[in-house]
Each structure stands twice: as C-alpha cells, then as structure tokens.
Specification:
binds adenosine monophosphate, binds magnesium ion, five-stranded mixed β-sheet, single chain
Length: 974
C-alpha cells in the first residue's frame, strides 16, 4: 500500500468507496428514545463511575471584534439547535440500559453578561473567572440541552461567545459543523420552514441505532487480541506525586508554539520520509516517552473518528473511538526506522478500528492499574485547525478551545497545526504532575524534534534531549579542590596530628571505659607493634574480630598504624560466612579479644588476642611502614548475588577523601559522636574517622543499644552527644519513644543506609526543631557517602531527597545505554571520583560488571561504579532515591542480595527453585516501603519440598543470616 493511504486525510478521502461498497445508514424507526452509540456508552459509563465531573466538558471561546449583532447571533444559535436532534437529547437509564431521548423543544438559555464597565485587569480576571467556572460546572445528563452558552460584552465592538457542552453530544469534528452552521445562519437566517427542510434526514440517533446492529468483525477483534493480550506494560512515567486511589480528573495544560523554522523542517522532513505529520510527531512522542521511562513497548491512545460514511459528514454527534497504538522497538533503532514502525502500527490499528474500545476492555480484561485507562496512560492527538469562520467582512474573529482545570488521562499531547506552525499542548493530571515538570517535557520534546530534523538517522537513544541547564547541573564542574587533608598520605597520620593537638581530650567512651587521645594512641601503637612483628606490613589484610569496646577501636587503629588494612569480622556472623571472608581475603592474622576468640573457628590462621598485648608504661614508639594513598586501609564484605559475599578494598586515599568531605559539607565537626553502626558496615567509618581526625569524642554504643531506647537517651545525655548517624527507621523509633529532654545536646543527626521518609522528617522537626537533619547516601564501593542533603523543615514531597554529590563524587543518572536521563526521569545512579574503591577482592568478573569505563571522560582510565540504585533529579537539582534496579535490598541496615539467599537455598538438593522477596506481610508492601518498615521480612518461596520435616531441617541448616536480626524465612509449598 502506498504510504499516503496511511493518513487520516486519505482515509477520509476514500470514504466514498466505503459508501458505495454497501455502507449506508438508514433512518431508524420513528421513536423518541434511541440507543447510545458505542462511544457514547463509554462516556455514559464514566459519568456513572465519576458523577458530577466536568472532565468530559468541552469549551470553545469565540472572540469577536467589530459590530456583532447579538440578537442575530442568539437566533442563529437557536437555529443550530433546531436542526440537530442530538443537541436536544437527554440521557436516561431505561430497563438498566442507557438511552438518549430526543426533545422537540428545549430551552437554550443564552446568558448575557456585561463586562464593559470594568477596567482592564478587572475585566480580564472577571472574564477568566466566569469562563473557568462555566467550563467546570458539571452537566446533568438527564437535562437537555447538554450545552451552555454565554455572551460577554467587553465593549460595544468586542464580544465573547463562550460555548460549553458535554462531549456525549459532540466531537471536535462536530464543532466545525456547528461553527459552519452558525456562521451560515448568522449571515442569512432561513425562515422556520426552510430551516426544517434543511434538516439532515439522517441524524446522529439513526447512526447510534444502526451501529447497535453492527456485528463486530471477528478478524478485527483477532487483531486486537493479538496486540493487547497478556501483560500490558505499564508506562513508567516519572511523576511528581503518587497516584491517588481514585483519579480526580483535575488537570492543567501547557501550550507552546514550535518555532516557524522547526515547524517548516518537520513538514518538509515528514514529506521526505513519506509520512504524515501525525506519524512523525507521534514517533517523536514515542522517543520522548521512551527516554523518560526506559520502556521499549509503549501503548499510546489516540482518538479516531468512526464517520466512515459520507452520509455522516455533516452530522453533529459523538463519533470518536479510542484506538490503542502499541509499538515495540529497540533503543538502538534509528529514528527513520522508528518512523516506519510507527507508520505500520498506525496503519494496522486504523484499519482495525471498528472494534469498540469497551468491547476490547471486556474481552481482554486487562489488569486495571490505578490509572483511569486500562491500556494506556497517555494520549496523542493531532489536529489540523480549520480556517476561522467568517461572520462578515467587518467582523474579525479569534477562536480557540478553552481547556482548563481538567485532564481525562494522565498525560495527553495535543499537537495542532495552524498557519504553518505546530503548537504542542500537554494536558496533564495535577494528581500526578507539577507544571514545572510539564515545562521540562515541552523543552525535551522540542529538543528531540530539533535533533531529529538535524539528523533523522540518529538512533533514538542518541537524539540530544538535555537542555543547557540540565547539562550544567548533571556535569557540574568536577574539579577536585585540594582540601584540608591535602598534605596527608594516610589516615593514621591525620589521627596522629589530632592526638598531638588534643592529647588530654577524651577520644573514646564505651560504657564505663574511656581513653584520652594520648591513651588511645599509645594503645594503638602497642597493638601496631605486635602486628608488625607478625605481618609483612603494607597492604596485608588483618582480620578484626572483636566485640564492641574501646579496645576494638584501638585495635582498628593499631592495624592501620602497622600499615595493614583491617577487615572487620562481625562476631555474630555465621561460621560459614567467616570462613569465606577470611579465605577470600587471604587473611593470615586475626586480631581478636578474649570474649570473641572462643567462637572463632576459621582454620589455621594466627590469632592475636588484644587483651594479651601488654601495656607499656612509657610512650611506646613505632616505625610504621609509610603507607600512601593507594595502599589499603580496610576491607568490607557485602552480600553478593552470586551466593558469596564480596570484599570491597578501601584505600587510604578513599577514606581520606571521604572524611575530608565532611569538613566542608557539615557546619560543625562532632564534639561527641555516638557510633551506632557495626564496624563491619561502611557507615561506621563516617563517625570513626570524622571524630578521631578532628579531636572529638567517639562514643561507642554497647551491643544492641538500639533495643533499649531509654538507655540510648541516657548515653546521649551523659556524654553530651552532638552528632550521630543511624538508619532512618531506627531514628524514627528514637525520636518517637525517647525522653526528648535527654536529647538536648544533639546538634546534627544523619540518617543513612536506607530511604528516609517524609514522616520521619516531620516527626524530627516537630520534636527536635533545633537539630540539623541530614540524609546521606552512598554504597560501600564509593566509600561511605557520595550524595548528601540537608533536610529542611519546609520541604514537603513524596520523597526525601538524597541531595547533591559530596566528597568530590561525580554522580550521573544514566539509562541502559549509559546516556544521561533528563531531569525528572529515573536513571541508574553511577558514581565516579576519588571515593571509588575500584574493585572487589579476587573477583575480576564482578569488578568488571560493577565498575564501568567512564562514558563521558575521553582518553581516561576513569571508572564509574554502577550502584544498582535508581534515582532522579527534582526541580531543585537534588537527587531523589527511587529504589533498586535489581534484587539487592536493605533490611534493618543489612545490605542483602536476595539472589545470594536464592543461590544458597538452591544448593539444597530438596529445593528445585527458590524465589526470595523482601515483603512486609502486615502492610503488604514490597521493596522500597518495606525497607523502612519494622515488620518487613525476607520471605523465601520454595518449589518442591516434600514434607514438613524437610522444611524444618532446611530451616535449621540455613545459617547465612543472623538469627537475632529476626530474618524469618517463611516457605510456601507449591
Ligand atoms: P552499603 O554499601 O551498605 O552502604 O549500602 C548501600 C546501599 O544502601 C545503596 O546502594 C542504597 O541502596 C542504600 N542506601 C544507602 N543510603 C541511602 C539513603 N540515604 N537513602 C536510600 N537508600 C540508601
Ligand atoms: Mg553506605
């Protein structure tokens, strides 16, 4: 088929053939009551579902300049009503079925309002008020006419005619007929008789009657079943607000004209590509949606007229059907290839358009999302604006649609074409979007179009989309300025300088124990000397398997001083995990204490008991190997999806950079910092090094202090704790249940490790308004933190931002093709800069997957860490955390790869397949919400377990997870 036949226009041109092919509409039997057309049925149904809603109101505004004859205009309007039955119809339910009832006469009230005595701005605002409230006043479908008219006088030569109607009686095409009739009658009003004679024999009600008797073409139905069966992919449009349970249909609209030149280029290029502007602009819309959502299978709704017969050409009524345009494409398609695909989609969909939308919904029964349409969230409408009607030589007229305050869908793009210019209007639901977001959408659509006309052979993921403002925000400056620690080569030298400056200050407090800086340093030196005797020094990894205590911190510093890297081994880790960790990191020496040593069972390793390292009376001295920035400082193991935890080796350069960042980002260094996290979590490094490098007191919490909120308050009060960092979920409990007077020394609270919720912030500002609250984000691989945000009390959003890059981190939000996503669109968070550890221990494969070559840095060996986290920029230029792109979860601060548990479960011969999820069985939430919920659990679904005993056996043998973290494994037999 020739390309041309695609267009709506050519469809229209060929309608004659259809008529001669037996398609004709007969007069329905004489009656007052008629059935509804299929399209009307749909609107009627929506009206029942959402009564008293103006969403299907449609308004037009006519601005007349010149000597308008108002009486004549009124008579002409009444005449239009007389010739079209549908304009005199009301809608009722009869025997459970909706009908439309034709009235011979209806009273059309044409209200006149005189605004001419108001001054300029007052007139405008009054007019806006009248029009807006009129356009939003719902109709009662049982009362004809479903049409309201107002005439506003602005001066003797300036009038406004405002028409609002319910869509159930008229489509856009009908408005053209309405206008044509109105101008005709205005110019020459026929007498009663002539008017009656001019009435079309076939009326919309006849069409509705006829349509009812039409069978659905099984071939067409087949086409749609093929297109729309199975799971309908939800368009992952980023929104500003969460979807309400019930749509309000409240909306906004944002209109822009495309520049002349661009409009011309679009017309030319569509001609060259042998497609209509409709297909061209729709294809560009697909690109826009794809770049915002990442979806490659997108469904867009589009209205289509069912005026298939010439008889219907001049009839007013509602002939619109909705058609679903589903296009599947790869991101590396060229735009011209997409164009061809969309051309085929539209062609196929148009030629199967006679299956009513409602029937499809009924037949296919798609899973209804919260969105108000089962198949698509967004509409695309293209409209050639007809010429302005002529009311007379001395009357100039300007008319437009008046679209305010409502939105039928989540998002609709109307493109209209008038006088050689395309204009783009986004109608959006204010349930989901802010106007600022739609402004961006407009910018991005225009940029894409500019990129396309520049080079239509570009692949769709490469068409430029970023505005200059976005480029500035996303690329930043990334100049690493030398900070206060520029002169240091390793972290313990910084600590040693803090010792020199604060020898008698308290460095560590743990319960009743405390050590001054001088004492801590001496103890660390003694330990270091003992380690030096047993190791080769630089870069050797030494295990640290000790209970929380002041000694544990001294041990950690001792290992560093000996030039080695410490590997924290949590005393509560299961045996299997400990063995893996020490073997994988090739640890030969483990520093332990008398309490923990007994439970350490990890084969032939040398174990050094801190408690047996003697205290010297004099200041011990040491000659440590001098470590440089590239030497290892510590190693942290995190869960691995392959079934084995993986080691992140962090260098002195990494931790110096990370700590130095705090000195510039935070207003104050900690006087006293309460360390809650385990030293085997990277978040503990924030407090340990920040505090001990700046002369503050590190208050080490006793084991399970978080389970005793009252005691926690006491620890804060008795140590005058100024700073702390904890999981937001823990902080929530602390502020909810603490005696607030005990928290009065707090100055800075940092939440980190999992998503912070607005509710937590609200409680914070209510209870501790004077305390600064920060949200820190960062994976272990990027050394503690990479993005941070000072939360303000006035912030009120659905999400609490994680903020902007810190500590010289480069942060990018990228799509699957490593292109930066536009502002507001979700992208995976990639991190670069001096915080990157750069590899995993003994795991080249994982290293390669996680650290990719820097896509924006030419001729560089730079890397970016692929976090697996999803984020997006908000309008303030802050990043928001959106959850995970993969199977990693956080549960009570533990970073767990669900895949690791699945792999381990599947190692059991009884288990054929395991699926592990983080769920909140009480609140029934998944993933991101469950992360911060106290009742969340990790739940495993297992396939093929034969009996209860097997389950029990299995459960007792699974030792990967810590018992006391209350990670339950529930199972479901299949
Ligand atoms: P970890 O390596 O244990 O520090 O865990 C890093 C992961 O924790 C990140 O990749 C995120 O998934 C999550 N995470 C850390 N900080 C935050 C935060 N402030 N908000 C949301 N998620 C976070
Ligand atoms: Mg972290």
């Amino acid at each position: 088929m020739e390309n041309e036949k695609l267009s709506l226009l050519s469809k229209w041109k060929s309608r004659k053939k259809m008529t001669s092919g037996g398609f004709s509409i007969l007069k329905a039997p004489q009656s007052r009551n008629y059935p509804l057309s299929r399209g009307q049925h749909r609107l009627y149904f929506l009206e029942q579902l959402y009564p008293n809603n103006p969403v299907y109101n449609s308004s037009e505004i006519y601005h007349f300049y010149g000597p308008l004859d108002i009486d004549r205009l009124r008579e002409s309007l009444q005449a239009v009503l007389k010739v079209s039955d549908i304009l005199r119809c009301s809608f009722h339910l009869r025997d459970g079925k909706p009908i439309q009832k034709v009235h011979d006469r209806v009273h059309l009230d044409i209200e006149s309002i005189d605004l001419s005595n108001l001054a300029g701005p007052d007139m405008e605002s009054r007019q806006e008020e009248i029009l807006t409230s009129d356009s939003l006043a719902p109709f009662n479908l049982e009362h004809a006419p479903l049409l309201r008219i107002k005439i506003l006088k602005r001066s003797s030569t300036e009038h406004i005619l405002f028409i609002t109607m319910h869509h159930i009686i008229m489509d856009k095409w009908s408005m053209d007929i309405f206008r044509e009739q109105l101008t005709g009658y205005y110019k020459a009003l026929p007498g009663e008789e002539a008017l009656t004679d001019s009435k079309s024999k076939i009326q919309f009600t006849d069409y509705a009657y006829w349509q009812q008797s039409q069978e659905v073409d099984p071939q067409q139905l087949r086409y749609w079943k093929d297109q729309l069966s199975g799971e309908i992919p939800m368009l992952n449009l980023p929104t500003d607000f969460q979807m309400p349970l019930k749509p309000s249909f409240k909306g906004g609209s944002n209109v822009r004209d495309l520049p002349d030149k661009l409009s011309g280029q679009i017309t030319d290029l569509s001609k060259k590509c042998k497609v209509t502007p409709y297909v061209f602009l729709l294809s560009a819309y697909y690109v826009l949606l794809h770049r915002y959502s990442g979806n490659c299978d997108i469904l867009i709704g589009s209205p289509i007229s069912t005026r298939n017969s010439r008889t219907l050409e001049k009839i007013i009524g509602f002939f619109d059907e909705t058609i679903v345009l589903r296009t599947k494409f790869g991101p590396s398609l060229k735009f011209t290839e997409l164009l061809e695909l969309v051309r085929q989609t539209t062609m196929a969909s148009f030629s199967n358009k006679d299956v009513p939308f409602d029937l499809l919904v009924k037949e296919l029964n798609p899973e209804r999302s919260a969105s108000n349409n089962p198949f698509f969230r967004t509409m695309f409408i293209y409209h050639d604006v007809p010429p302005v009607p002529a009311f007379g030589d001395d009357i100039r007229l300007h008319y437009t649609f008046f679209n305010k305050g409502v939105s039928k869908f989540d998002l609709t793009l109307y493109v209209s074409y008038e006088n050689g210019i395309f204009s783009t209007e986004f109608e959006y639901t204010t349930d989901l979007f802010k106007n600022a977001t739609i402004e961006n959408l407009q910018d991005h659509y225009r940029l894409l179009l500019e990129g396309i006309v520049e080079d239509p052979e570009l692949t769709i993921n490469k068409i430029p989309i970023l505005t200059n403002k976005e480029k500035e925000l996303f690329l930043g400056e990334n100049v690493v300025v030398p900070g206060p620690y520029a002169g240091y080569n390793n972290i313990y030298e910084i600590f040693e300088d803090a010792v020199k400056n604060n020898p008698t200050e308290l460095a560590i407090v743990f319960g009743e124990q405390s050590l001054t800086y001088a004492e801590l340093n001496n103890r660390a030196t003694e330990i270091a000397n003992a380690i030096l005797e047993r190791t080769l020094g630089k870069n050797e990894i030494v295990g640290l398997h000790a209970n929380r205590s002041a000694e544990m911190i001294a041990g950690l510093l001792g290992i560093l001083k000996a030039g080695c890297a410490y590997l924290p081994i949590d005393t509560e880790y299961p045996e299997k995990r400990i063995i893996h960790v020490v073997e994988d990191s090739n640890v030969a020496l483990i520093l332990s204490d008398s309490k923990s040593i007994t439970i350490l069972d990890c084969g032939p390793r040398e174990i050094l008991n801190i408690d047996e390292i003697g205290f010297s009376t004099e200041n011990p001295s040491i000659r440590p190997p001098s470590c440089g920035r590239d030497d290892l400082a510590y190693v942290i193991y995190t869960s691995g999806s392959t079934g084995k935890p993986k080691g992140v080796p962090v260098t002195h350069g990494n931790i110096i950079n990370s700590t130095e960042g705090r000195l510039t980002f935070y207003r104050e260094n900690p006087r006293a910092y309460l360390l809650m996290s385990s030293v085997s979590f990277d978040s503990s490094k924030a407090g340990i090094f920040w505090t001990l490098c700046t002369g503050g007191t590190l208050v080490v919490s006793e084991n399970r202090l978080e389970q005793n909120i009252e005691k926690l308050g006491d620890v804060i009060a008795s140590n005058s704790v100024t700073h702390t960092l904890m999981l937001p979920s823990l902080y929530k409990t602390v502020i909810e249940y603490s005696d607030l007077s005990k928290l009065s020394s707090l100055r800075t609270v940092i939440v980190a490790g999992e998503a912070c919720t607005p509710a937590i912030c609200a409680t914070h500002f209510e209870k501790l308004p004077g305390v600064l609250l920060y949200n820190e984000y960062g994976p272990t691989e990027a050394t503690v933190w990479a993005v941070a945000h000072k939360i303000e009390s006035r912030e009120q959003g659905v999400v609490v931002p994680i903020g902007k890059p810190v500590a010289n981190a480069e942060v990018y939000l990228l799509d699957s093709n490593l292109e930066m996503v536009p502002l507001g669109a979700p992208g995976e968070i990639y991190i670069g800069g001096p915080g990157l550890a750069g590899r995993y221990i003994n795991n080249h494969k994982l290293t390669k997957e996680a650290y990719i070559d820097h896509p924006f840095e030419k001729n560089s060996s730079g890397k970016l860490y692929k976090t697996g986290d999803l984020g997006r920029y908000n309008h303030a230029g802050d990043i928001e955390y959106l959850g995970r792109a993969d199977e990693q979860v956080k549960i009570r601060g533990f970073r767990v790869e669900l895949g690791e548990i699945e792999k381990i479960l599947e190692e059991y011969k009884e288990v054929e397949k395991a699926i592990v999820l983080l769920q909140d069985p009480i609140k029934r939430n998944l993933a991101i919400d469950a992360t911060t919920s106290e009742t969340a659990q990790i739940i495993a679904y297992l396939e093929r377990l034969d009996n209860e005993d097997q389950i029990d056996e299995l459960l007792t043998s699974i030792r990967t997870l810590k018992e006391d973290e209350k990670m339950y494994l529930l199972q479901k037999l299949q």
